[in-house]
Every structure is written in structure tokens, then in C-alpha cells.
Design brief:
There is one protein chain. By secondary structure, this protein is α+β, with helices and mostly antiparallel strands. It has a single domain, classed as Roll (Ubiquitin Conjugating Enzyme), CATH 3.10.110. Helix content is 30%, strand content 12%. α3 (133-141) packs across α4 (143-157). The two termini are 25 Å apart.
């Protein structure tokens, strides 16, 4: 079922202009993803930030992994490009970090919501527990120096723009085009989901049972 869900999401995102996606070696579980920042007020405006997303075989029960391919100077990006963001953390509450279940991954999430959260994080860094301590310190103590460092990464990112690809240049590019249907859960289904017994509950995704449920609701 994971393949079907990912393919639906892939087809929908392929219509967007703020991201450029492709499959790695035709593998639906590995995506090449480029984030294109279209907010002119952003330090990252005009950048083409290429990354790789890897999905588990039991998606969407578990979150994907996300890592930038080029170094990106940001408090929440490790020096190896791996991103630290709550939405990609394992489901459920975490007493150690203080993160609530609603902040972390759940089967309700989609790739689109992850990418939009990452775009938001770029200009709204979480510095309380930075993945890159030096970047966090510079952002706090030397914002002008931080801006210059980000500008360098932004310009280098443009080297990854593929030949023939037309970069969008205006926020109007965020307007949604008509999409194919994608899988989603209702709020009540998400609340009832038992993360500890996800293997037993995978039958929830069965097409026939989903059809019966819709008929019951009608």
C-alpha cells in the first residue's frame, strides 16, 4: 500500500512549481527533491535547494528521512545535510525533547506538509537545541554575518538547477493546480490509531474496507 500512497503524492507534487521532484533510479521510495524559495522576503529567496528523501517500507506509519545534498548554513541542519525538524521525528510524545505528539510525525502527514514545514523552518529557525551550534550562535550574535553565509549557500545552490528548467520567480507560483486525489485520514481515525500495533492495523488501508467505511458514513 505504501507504493500506491507515495505514487499519488508524487503525481500531485509533480504539478507544483515550488518544488522539483524526481525518482532516484525509478525507486518510489527514494526521491530527489528540490525546494525553491519563492518568498522575496526570505534570506533563501531564489535558491534551488536539492535534497534526498527516503521513505520506509511501512510509510506512512513511519516518517521519511530528509537531507540536503549541499551544505546549508542553518541552525537546524547538521553539517552532513541532515535536517532536524519535529515533523520528521518518530510518532508519539517525547518527554526528553518536550515535543508533543501533534508536533511530530503521524500517518496524517504527507510529503507536501513536510516540505512546506521545511520551507517555513528556513526563515524561522529553532535555536533552542540547534543541530548546527555554530550557525545558531552566529544567527543570534552576528545576524549580518549569518546573512552573508546564507547568501553564499543560496548562490551555490543555483548550480544544481537542471538544464532547461525554468525557475519560478513570483509568489503566485504557489497557487495550486488541480491535483489527483491523495490519501488522507480523518481526524478521528488519526486519534484512534495505535502506533504500538501499527503492523496489526495496516489492514486499515485496505481499499475494500475503506469503501465499506464510506458507505456506512453515508
Amino acid at each position: 500500500m505504501a507504493e500506491k500512497i507515495l505514487m499519488n503524492e508524487y503525481k500531485a507534487l509533480a504539478k507544483e512549481t515550488w518544488t522539483n521532484i524526481s525518482l532516484v533510479n525509478e525507486n518510489i521510495f527514494e526521491w530527489s527533491v528540490a525546494l525553491i524559495v519563492l518568498n522575496p522576503d526570505s534570506l533563501y529567496y531564489g535558491g534551488y535547494f536539492k535534497a534526498k528523501m527516503t521513505f520506509p517500507q511501512n510509510y506512512p506509519y513511519q516518517p521519511p528521512e530528509f537531507a540536503f545534498e549541499r551544505p546549508l548554513w542553518h541552525p537546524n541542519v547538521y553539517t552532513n545535510g541532515r535536517l532536524c525538524i519535529s515533523i520528521l521525528h518518530q510518532p508519539g510524545e517525547d518527554a526528553m525533547s518536550g515535543e508533543m505528539a501533534g508536533e511530530r510525525w503521524s500517518p496524517v502527514q504527507r510529503v507536501e506538509s513536510v516540505l512546506i514545514s521545511i520551507l517555513s523552518l528556513l526563515d524561522d529557525a529553532e535555536c533552542s537545541s540547534p543541530a548546527n551550534v555554530d550557525a545558531g550562535v552566529q544567527l543570534r550574535n552576528d545576524p549580518e554575518g549569518y546573512k552573508k553565509r546564507v547568501a553564499e549557500d543560496r548562490e551555490k545552490s543555483k548550480e544544481d538547477i537542471p538544464a532547461g528548467f525554468e525557475m519560478p520567480t513570483h509568489e503566485s507560483a504557489f497557487k495550486k493546480e488541480e491535483k489527483v486525489d491523495t490519501f488522507s485520514w480523518s481526524d478521528s481515525e488519526a486519534e484512534d490509531f495505535d502506533f504500538d500495533n501499527s503492523d496489526d492495523d495496516e489492514e486499515m488501508f485496505d481499499d475494500d474496507e475503506g469503501t465499506d467505511q464510506e458507505e456506512d458514513e453515508e
